[in-house]
Amino acid sequence: MEVIDPTIIARKWGTLIAIFNIYGILLAAVFYIKAHLYPTHEGDRRFSSSPFYDFYMGVELNPRIFNQHWDVKLFHNGRPGIIGWALIDLSFMALQYRNYGFVTNSMIITLVLHMLYIGDFFHHEEWYLRTIDIAHDHFGFYLAWGSAAFLPTMYTLQAQYLARSPLELEPISAALILGLGIGGYAIFRSSNNQKDNRTGRHIKQFFYAQDGGDFRDTPII
């Protein structure tokens, strides 16, 4: 007896897409209003001459609620969308198995590469705090709807397609695609490590100088 039907996300996909979009739009609207009436930090708000631009790009940099203990942008960028991505992929893989009685190697490759990114994201989550999304982008429709609706629907397109159009690759093709994907991710991770090491050094220099140390004497960590 199944406690939880693993295909439920895939089978209710149309309804979920509608919910994602409604939630993303409402989330952006609520925090657009909050930014005007109850800003967390007035100094980090950004206004333009266009309310449409402000709604899309965001007003507050890091809106917080619940007595400022919950960072709404950090939560939505790193939790519902990324975790949902994994659950959606797994559900469509389960749907393929339920419909056809097997899981294709193309579906397995898709999930391996996606889970590699997702697992690495959470393993190096500190790195994400220094990305443009968190450090510079304000929380508006772009990030609210993007994390709530765009990410879970668009990043899972491959699994959605393969669940209903199974494709079994030749072993050599499967190996080449998997190797190319892992190699590409290794390059991505290496370049991000270099950037993060450089960024992290400057952040350490800044706080070292703020504490009264000589910027030039900052230890390289």
Automatic annotation (TrEMBL):
Entry-linked Pfam families: ERG4_ERG24
Residues making up the signal peptide according to the UniProt record: none
Family: Belongs to the ERG4/ERG24 family.
Keywords assigned by UniProt, alphabetized: Cholesterol biosynthesis, Cholesterol metabolism, Lipid biosynthesis, Lipid metabolism, Membrane, NADP, Oxidoreductase, Steroid biosynthesis, Steroid metabolism, Sterol biosynthesis, Sterol metabolism, Transmembrane, Transmembrane helix
Organism: Penicillium cataractarum
The keyword DNA-binding is assigned to this record: no
Predominant localisation class: membrane
EC class of the enzyme, as a word: oxidoreductase
GO cellular component assignments: endoplasmic reticulum membrane
Subcellular location, record wording: Membrane
InterPro entries registered for this protein in UniProt: ERG24_DHCR-like
TM annotation in the entry: 12-33, 100-118, 139-157, 169-188
Protein name: 7-dehydrocholesterol reductase
GO function term, MF aspect, one: 7-dehydrocholesterol reductase activity
Lineage: superkingdom: Eukaryota
Lineage start: Eukaryota, Fungi, Dikarya, Ascomycota, Pezizomycotina
